């Protein structure tokens, strides 16, 4: 509308320059919104509600209300989840695909979860996130940043209460997630999974394309679920005091997994079973891989095979530790087997198929975690006001406004007080970041996220969800 009134008073050539400048300041776009999300100029003018695919201009301030959040994508491929009660802007961005690429972002309040794009990789010193407390240098990174007042302290207490309440029914925990991974409970409810999420008896886990997850069970068994996989925990009983009262029954309904058996498999191997529609796997203190395609897949599951299969579709197994009972066939360490369908005879393959050798999904013991701590009551540290940064991948440097510095690598968390006089490495990731209910920006279906409204935000109706479309 402004252009309509400007045209009579300026030359056409100036108008063309202005139009080009506006286009050049576009730095990204909105990918998803939930609740009240607005965008306005830095001076507070031109405030408006935003929706999916709306362009973000340099200097525009994105604001989220209580229980509201947005997922944005910047021109260099950076994706961010802007959390509730937050204000964020892109102050500068040069998205050229060379060493001059740079970006300066600003978090005025609240928090964000980010997976950075090519700028932080091409020019590691040219990607900055500024706050009132400190400036962060971002280097090829997945990280969370949160400016806390008194809200983080109260969130820690609520999260501790919630986590401890469900601890008795928790039979496993997710310790790593890449991409979109979800769980369907027996009652039909669904939730997106992230590191720290509990898994319950009867849960059916789904991994999307290019996603994988690592899960640790109470008996110290571990499973890496590959992409396009459906896996169900039919039964899991483990009594720490009386280990004879134990059993584990799993179903691989589609796709692939890598697993290491725990105490149930070692002490009571006959009480452990991994089922597919064409064969049941028995174990003897084992590490093995499975791929279930074609006739192996349960009814209603579509084909998920992406690898070149030497014997065609069916069930493939590869043992890298111990041995397994593969139908009527025993597979020893270093061997592989194949079964075409329920009535066919299992075969020992002459060699290990290439797709097992080049599996990009890591073995489940690649993540160093304390199994006992995973299933212990939550210990929450104090969370005074300040900046909290948690790094999942890459590196983040923090420089406070008084010049104090701290380098964080993957798996580390840091804190800077509001005056910038203290920059310290934290002994553990704060609960409000470790168990953040708001999704990472790379989830394929953010609408499936279940937000526990009793944890974050405020409002008169805890069941109301406003969505701008």
Report what the structure shows.
This protein is mainly β. It has helices spanning 2-6, 12-24, 119-122, 151-165, 263-267, 354-357, 371-374, 431-434, and strands at residues 26-34, 37-40, 48-49, 55-57, 61-64, 69-74, 79-82, 87-94, 102-115, 127-130, 134-148, 170-178, 181-184, 190-192, 198-200, 204-207, 212-217, 222-225, 230-237, 247-260, 272-275, 280-283, 287-292, 315-321, 323-326, 329-332, 336-339, 347-348, 386-400, 405-409, 413-417, 423-425. It is elongated. The model is unreliable at 1-24 and 452-469 (pLDDT under 50).
Give a count of the beta strands, DSSP E runs of length 2 or more.
Answer: 32
Number of helices: 8
Structural class: mainly beta
Helix content: 10-25%
Radius of gyration: 25 Å
Distance between the termini: 23 Å
β-strand percent reads 35-45%
Q: Averaging pLDDT over every residue, what do you get?
A: 85
Q: Please mark out the parts with pLDDT under 50 across 5 or more consecutive residues, or reply none.
A: 1-24, 452-469
In short:
12% of the residues lie in helices and 41% in strands. The protein is built from 8 helices and 32 strands.
Break the fold down into its secondary structure elements and pairings.
Elements lengths: L1 H5 L5 H13 L1 E9 L2 E4 L7 E2 L5 E3 L3 E4 L4 E6 L4 E4 L4 E8 L7 E14 L3 H4 L4 E4 L3 E15 L2 H15 L4 E9 L2 E4 L5 E3 L5 E3 L3 E4 L4 E6 L4 E4 L4 E8 L9 E14 L2 H5 L4 E4 L4 E4 L3 E6 L22 E7 L1 E4 L2 E4 L3 E4 L7 E2 L5 H4 L13 H4 L11 E15 L4 E5 L3 E5 L5 E3 L5 H4 L35
Parallel strand pairs: 9-10, 20-21
Antiparallel strand pairs: 1-4, 1-6, 2-3, 2-5, 5-8, 6-7, 7-9, 8-9, 9-11, 10-11, 11-29, 12-15, 12-17, 13-14, 13-16, 16-19, 17-18, 18-20, 19-20, 20-23, 21-22, 22-25, 23-24, 24-27, 25-26, 27-28, 29-30, 29-31, 31-32
